[in-house]
Amino acid sequence: MLKSITVGNFRAFSEKVTLDFSEVGKYDFNTEAIKNGLVKTAIMYGKNAGGKSSIAYAIFDIVSNLTDKYTGIPHHKNYKNAFNMEQPVTFEYNFKFRDKEVKYIVPAKDEFIYEPKELTAIVKLTVGDVDEVTIEELRGCEKLNNIIQNIYRGEYIKHLGKMDSVYFKQCIDIAKNIRFFKVTRPANQFTVDTQINLIEREIISAKEIVV
Protein backbone atom coordinates (compact mmCIF):
# COMPACT_ATOMS: atom_id res chain seq x y z
CA MET A 1 0.00 0.00 0.00
CA LEU A 2 1.03 3.59 -0.57
CA LYS A 3 2.31 5.00 2.73
CA SER A 4 3.14 8.54 1.67
CA ILE A 5 3.75 10.71 -1.35
CA THR A 6 5.93 13.82 -1.56
CA VAL A 7 6.06 16.14 -4.57
CA GLY A 8 8.23 19.17 -5.17
CA ASN A 9 7.98 21.89 -7.82
CA PHE A 10 4.99 20.00 -9.21
CA ARG A 11 2.07 21.95 -10.66
CA ALA A 12 0.60 23.99 -7.77
CA PHE A 13 3.44 23.20 -5.34
CA SER A 14 6.64 25.26 -5.57
CA GLU A 15 7.92 23.68 -2.33
CA LYS A 16 7.83 20.03 -1.25
CA VAL A 17 4.46 18.84 0.01
CA THR A 18 3.82 15.45 1.67
CA LEU A 19 0.61 13.47 1.98
CA ASP A 20 1.23 10.85 4.69
CA PHE A 21 -1.32 8.04 4.93
CA SER A 22 0.34 6.62 8.05
CA GLU A 23 -0.83 9.59 10.14
CA VAL A 24 -4.13 7.93 10.94
CA GLY A 25 -4.94 10.04 13.98
CA LYS A 26 -7.97 8.93 15.98
CA TYR A 27 -9.99 7.07 13.41
CA ASP A 28 -11.89 5.04 16.01
CA PHE A 29 -15.16 6.35 14.62
CA ASN A 30 -14.46 4.81 11.20
CA THR A 31 -12.11 1.84 11.45
CA GLU A 32 -13.06 0.69 7.94
CA ALA A 33 -11.06 3.62 6.59
CA ILE A 34 -7.85 2.14 8.04
CA LYS A 35 -5.97 -0.92 6.83
CA ASN A 36 -2.63 -2.13 8.21
CA GLY A 37 -2.10 1.19 9.97
CA LEU A 38 -2.63 3.24 6.80
CA VAL A 39 -5.52 5.37 5.57
CA LYS A 40 -7.09 3.49 2.66
CA THR A 41 -10.24 5.59 2.24
CA ALA A 42 -10.25 9.37 2.51
CA ILE A 43 -11.87 12.55 1.23
CA MET A 44 -9.64 15.42 0.11
CA TYR A 45 -11.13 18.87 0.30
CA GLY A 46 -9.94 22.47 0.32
CA LYS A 47 -10.31 25.86 -1.32
CA ASN A 48 -9.94 26.40 -5.04
CA ALA A 49 -6.35 26.33 -6.33
CA GLY A 50 -5.24 24.69 -3.10
CA GLY A 51 -3.52 21.80 -4.84
CA LYS A 52 -6.15 19.05 -4.67
CA SER A 53 -5.89 18.23 -8.37
CA SER A 54 -2.09 18.35 -8.25
CA ILE A 55 -1.97 15.68 -5.54
CA ALA A 56 -4.53 13.61 -7.44
CA TYR A 57 -2.48 13.77 -10.65
CA ALA A 58 0.62 12.70 -8.75
CA ILE A 59 -1.25 9.64 -7.44
CA PHE A 60 -2.69 8.92 -10.90
CA ASP A 61 0.89 8.95 -12.20
CA ILE A 62 1.65 5.95 -9.95
CA VAL A 63 -1.47 4.11 -11.05
CA SER A 64 -0.78 4.67 -14.75
CA ASN A 65 2.86 3.60 -14.61
CA LEU A 66 2.92 0.82 -12.02
CA THR A 67 -0.40 -0.93 -12.62
CA ASP A 68 -2.60 -2.10 -15.48
CA LYS A 69 -5.39 0.25 -14.44
CA TYR A 70 -6.32 3.13 -16.75
CA THR A 71 -6.77 6.51 -15.08
CA GLY A 72 -8.34 8.33 -18.01
CA ILE A 73 -7.03 10.63 -20.72
CA PRO A 74 -4.70 13.17 -19.07
CA HIS A 75 -5.96 16.73 -18.93
CA HIS A 76 -2.57 18.24 -18.16
CA LYS A 77 0.77 18.62 -19.89
CA ASN A 78 2.78 20.91 -17.64
CA TYR A 79 4.29 19.17 -14.62
CA LYS A 80 6.53 22.01 -13.46
CA ASN A 81 5.42 24.80 -11.17
CA ALA A 82 4.98 27.93 -13.29
CA PHE A 83 7.20 30.02 -10.98
CA ASN A 84 10.13 27.56 -10.98
CA MET A 85 10.45 26.36 -14.56
CA GLU A 86 14.23 25.94 -14.25
CA GLN A 87 14.02 23.57 -11.29
CA PRO A 88 13.33 19.80 -11.60
CA VAL A 89 10.11 18.16 -10.54
CA THR A 90 10.61 15.58 -7.79
CA PHE A 91 8.45 12.62 -6.80
CA GLU A 92 8.95 10.56 -3.66
CA TYR A 93 6.76 7.52 -3.07
CA ASN A 94 6.85 5.37 0.07
CA PHE A 95 5.19 1.96 -0.09
CA LYS A 96 4.52 -0.53 2.69
CA PHE A 97 4.51 -4.23 1.81
CA ARG A 98 3.68 -6.21 4.95
CA ASP A 99 6.76 -5.68 7.15
CA LYS A 100 8.84 -3.99 4.44
CA GLU A 101 8.93 -0.37 3.35
CA VAL A 102 10.15 0.72 -0.08
CA LYS A 103 10.98 4.26 -1.16
CA TYR A 104 11.10 5.53 -4.74
CA ILE A 105 12.60 8.95 -5.40
CA VAL A 106 12.43 10.34 -8.94
CA PRO A 107 13.92 13.72 -9.84
CA ALA A 108 12.16 14.45 -13.13
CA LYS A 109 15.18 16.05 -14.80
CA ASP A 110 18.67 14.77 -14.09
CA GLU A 111 17.80 11.07 -14.39
CA PHE A 112 16.02 11.48 -17.73
CA ILE A 113 17.72 10.93 -21.08
CA TYR A 114 17.25 13.82 -23.49
CA GLU A 115 19.36 12.74 -26.47
CA PRO A 116 17.91 10.18 -28.92
CA LYS A 117 18.50 6.51 -28.02
CA GLU A 118 17.91 3.44 -30.14
CA LEU A 119 15.02 1.36 -28.82
CA THR A 120 15.88 -2.31 -29.24
CA ALA A 121 13.45 -3.99 -26.84
CA ILE A 122 10.15 -3.43 -25.00
CA VAL A 123 9.36 -5.05 -21.66
CA LYS A 124 5.80 -5.45 -20.37
CA LEU A 125 5.43 -6.07 -16.63
CA THR A 126 2.39 -8.08 -15.52
CA VAL A 127 1.03 -9.86 -12.44
CA GLY A 128 -0.05 -13.48 -12.78
CA ASP A 129 -0.78 -16.75 -11.03
CA VAL A 130 2.88 -17.76 -10.77
CA ASP A 131 5.17 -18.72 -7.90
CA GLU A 132 8.22 -16.93 -9.26
CA VAL A 133 9.10 -14.27 -11.80
CA THR A 134 9.03 -15.48 -15.40
CA ILE A 135 10.03 -13.88 -18.70
CA GLU A 136 9.05 -14.78 -22.24
CA GLU A 137 9.58 -13.24 -25.65
CA LEU A 138 6.37 -12.56 -27.59
CA ARG A 139 6.20 -13.09 -31.34
CA GLY A 140 3.76 -12.81 -34.22
CA CYS A 141 0.19 -11.62 -33.67
CA GLU A 142 0.53 -11.78 -29.89
CA LYS A 143 3.46 -9.38 -30.09
CA LEU A 144 1.61 -6.96 -32.37
CA ASN A 145 -1.53 -7.04 -30.23
CA ASN A 146 0.48 -6.26 -27.09
CA ILE A 147 2.19 -3.34 -28.81
CA ILE A 148 -1.16 -1.89 -29.90
CA GLN A 149 -2.75 -2.44 -26.48
CA ASN A 150 0.11 -0.82 -24.58
CA ILE A 151 0.94 2.20 -26.73
CA TYR A 152 -2.46 2.91 -28.27
CA ARG A 153 -5.25 3.20 -25.70
CA GLY A 154 -8.37 1.23 -26.49
CA GLU A 155 -10.40 4.18 -25.22
CA TYR A 156 -9.04 6.32 -28.06
CA ILE A 157 -9.98 3.70 -30.66
CA LYS A 158 -13.53 3.53 -29.29
CA HIS A 159 -13.79 7.32 -29.38
CA LEU A 160 -12.44 7.60 -32.93
CA GLY A 161 -14.29 4.56 -34.19
CA LYS A 162 -11.16 3.00 -35.68
CA MET A 163 -7.39 3.08 -35.52
CA ASP A 164 -5.55 5.46 -37.84
CA SER A 165 -3.97 3.47 -40.70
CA VAL A 166 -0.66 5.33 -40.46
CA TYR A 167 -0.40 4.54 -36.78
CA PHE A 168 -1.26 0.89 -37.41
CA LYS A 169 1.60 0.66 -39.93
CA GLN A 170 3.92 2.19 -37.34
CA CYS A 171 2.90 -0.51 -34.86
CA ILE A 172 3.71 -3.13 -37.49
CA ASP A 173 7.15 -1.55 -38.04
CA ILE A 174 7.81 -1.68 -34.31
CA ALA A 175 6.80 -5.35 -34.22
CA LYS A 176 9.15 -6.12 -37.11
CA ASN A 177 12.20 -4.38 -35.69
CA ILE A 178 11.94 -4.44 -31.89
CA ARG A 179 11.88 -7.43 -29.57
CA PHE A 180 9.01 -7.60 -27.06
CA PHE A 181 9.26 -9.40 -23.71
CA LYS A 182 6.63 -10.05 -21.05
CA VAL A 183 7.69 -10.37 -17.43
CA THR A 184 5.13 -11.96 -15.10
CA ARG A 185 5.53 -11.60 -11.34
CA PRO A 186 3.62 -13.28 -8.50
CA ALA A 187 1.06 -11.22 -6.61
CA ASN A 188 1.72 -10.06 -3.04
CA GLN A 189 5.50 -10.45 -3.32
CA PHE A 190 8.23 -7.83 -3.60
CA THR A 191 10.27 -9.00 -6.60
CA VAL A 192 11.70 -5.82 -8.12
CA ASP A 193 15.33 -6.94 -7.75
CA THR A 194 14.54 -10.35 -9.22
CA GLN A 195 12.79 -8.75 -12.19
CA ILE A 196 15.74 -6.45 -12.84
CA ASN A 197 18.25 -9.29 -12.68
CA LEU A 198 16.13 -11.45 -14.97
CA ILE A 199 15.73 -8.69 -17.54
CA GLU A 200 19.45 -7.94 -17.48
CA ARG A 201 20.37 -11.59 -17.88
CA GLU A 202 17.88 -12.39 -20.64
CA ILE A 203 17.74 -9.21 -22.66
CA ILE A 204 20.69 -6.86 -22.34
CA SER A 205 23.31 -7.58 -24.98
CA ALA A 206 25.94 -5.44 -26.67
CA LYS A 207 23.42 -2.71 -27.45
CA GLU A 208 21.93 -0.47 -24.81
CA ILE A 209 18.31 -1.38 -23.99
CA VAL A 210 15.77 1.35 -23.31
CA VAL A 211 12.73 -0.02 -21.44
Strand-helix topology:
Elements: E1 2-8, E2 17-20, E3 34-35, E4 38-39, H1 52-66, E5 89-97, E6 100-108, E7 121-128, E8 134-138, H2 140-151, H3 154-160, H4 165-177, E9 179-186, H5 192-202
Parallel strand pairs: 7-9
Antiparallel strand pairs: 1-2, 1-5, 3-4, 5-6, 8-9
Explain how this protein is built:
The protein is of the alpha+beta class and 211 residues long. 27% of the residues lie in helices and 26% in strands. It has 5 helices and 9 strands; from the N terminus they run E-E-E-E-H-E-E-E-E-H-H-H-E-H. The protein starts with a strand and ends in a 9-residue tail after the last helix. The mean pLDDT is 78.
Strand content: 25-35%
Largest beta sheet: what is the strand line-up? 2-1-5-6
Mean pLDDT: 78
State the distance separating the first and last CA atoms.
25 Å
Q: What overall geometry do the principal axes of the alpha carbons give?
A: globular
Helix count?
A: 5
Q: Tell how many strands the DSSP assignment holds.
A: 9
The portion of residues assigned to helices is 25-40%
Question: How large, in whole angstroms, is the Cα Rg?
Answer: 20 Å
How would you sum up the major sheet?
A: 4 strands, antiparallel
The helix/strand series, from N terminus to C terminus, equals EEEEHEEEEHHHEH
Spans of at least 5 consecutive residues whose pLDDT stays below 50 are: none
* Class by SSE composition: alpha+beta
Which terms would index this structure?
four-stranded antiparallel sheet, 5 helices, globular
What does this entry show, briefly?
The protein has 211 residues and is of the alpha+beta class.
